[in-house]
Amino acid sequence: MRKAYKKDIVYSVVPFCDASQLFLTASSDSSFVTPANDTIQGHSQSVPDYPRQIRQLLEDVRELLLAEGFRSAVVMSNFHLADIRMKELLRQLVTEIFPEGLGALTIVPQAPANGSACGVEIWAIAGQNVSHRVFVPNHVVTMQTESARWFFGGNFRAGNATVGAYSRAFDTFRRLGSQLRRCRMRLEQVLRMWIYQGHLLLPDKKTPAGVLQRYQELNRARTDFFGNTKFLRNYLPEGFNSAAFPASTGIGADDVDVVMSAISVDVEQGDFIAVPLENPNQTSAFSYGANYSPQSPKFARGVAVSRKNWCQIFVSGTASITNSESRFDGDPASQTEQTLNNIATLIDGDNLAKHGINGFKSGLDKLECVRVYVKYPKDFNLVQKICEKHMENVPILYSVADVCRPELLVEIEGFAVTTK
Q1: Alpha-carbon distance 134 to 140, whole Å?
Q2: 4, pLDDT greater than 80
Q3: What is this structure's pTM?
Q4: Which regions of 208-320 does DSSP assign to beta strands (E)?
Q5: What is the DSSP string of 48-64?
């Protein structure tokens, strides 16, 4: 079920195990402005009224969650802010309007592509046999269903003592790992990660071989932290013999720091399958040559999770790449089409079957929540038009963000749901 609720609020409700899952994307109303010649603020021209925009957005979201029966069922929320100075205001308003919390809350310094003050993506899960427990307010939620225990963690950041892209990324990974252990989870059980790296492509470190970008230093930290971890080893289908990593997005942000979030699962029942997906038309990211990064990005193109008659697919950040080469340099429209084609190929039922998950039909029509990162705001309207042609009525959050290669203009990630 997909619905438009109010202006710029779209949501979807789909099955999740024996429960229901809601995905919602929304952006604040940019028509709320402070009038020109305001005698109190001294404005000489109209400026965005960010506090009013954010408050109204939160009140509209709360109204929808109440109407759909998900008021206390939010497991993850991601807020994308045009002005990171609004972070504390956002925290205060969330505490006021959602005293029950908004799950694992992450604040991302990325401007919504439509020019509004704030965009949000929310995941909520509710059902008779579902229970939630908040371990750290606004940061970590564990959820118990009949068949599994889930971990949703957000807003992981490095401590103040670390300096440099590598050190801050490694410390953030370390803090994520520590929280997993506190929740009786293991790193190998992580299905999905999000990494927001400020000034992604800026040079960060000089080496004898040249200057490393911040993204390359992030890849080095991830490789060192993962070490020899055998991801998903208890969930892989019989006969799976490839490298296994979580699905992931590594994307730019407007500040100079790094923030992460993640999902993991602990399952004892043997009919649960979680398998990394690779695209037959793309070189696996973890096999990229050193010309892209001295340590390759350790992530899968996606991860499919299946039990009985349902399958859910975490689609990693995807761009206009075939084999390992970027395509359509300087052409945002063609890059968007290629990116969507890559996602369609990844989640296609035939590709699922090749990875050991059989009997499901899937495609772009099965996407239930999507994020689109646009490098340049001027390309937003064009990219939006193409995306909405292929993904009609899907909750989509559009943000402005740098992508991992200078020539790439668009990156898209998503979450697909299909049943037999």
Answers
A1: 6
A2: no
A3: 0.95
A4: 210-213, 247-253, 258-267, 272-277, 302-307, 310-318
A5: E-HHHHHHHHHHHHHHH
Q: Which long-range contacts (CB under 8 A, 24 or more apart) does 286-295 make?
A: 286/243, 286/245, 287/324, 288/324, 289/324, 292/324, 292/405, 293/215, 293/216, 293/219, 293/220, 294/209, 294/212, 294/216, 294/219, 294/220, 295/216, 295/219, 295/220, 295/222, 295/223, 295/224
User: CB of 214 within 8 A of CB of 201?
Assistant: yes
The residues pairing with 107 across neighbouring beta strands, listed in sequence order, are: 79
- Model confidence pLDDT, tens digit, residues 37-71: 555 455 556 677 888 999 999 999 999 999 999 98
Domain extent listing, the chain: 2-34+46-419
H helical segments located in 198-354 = 214-226, 332-347, 349-354
Please tell me the total number of residues recorded for the chain in this structure. Answer: 420
How are beta strands 190-198 and 247-253 bridged, if at all? parallel
- The SS3 of residue 399 is strand
Q: What is the DSSP letter of 65?
A: H
Taking only the tens place, the pLDDT of each residue in 20-39 is 999 999 999 888 777 655 55
Gap between the terminal Cα atoms of the chain: 17
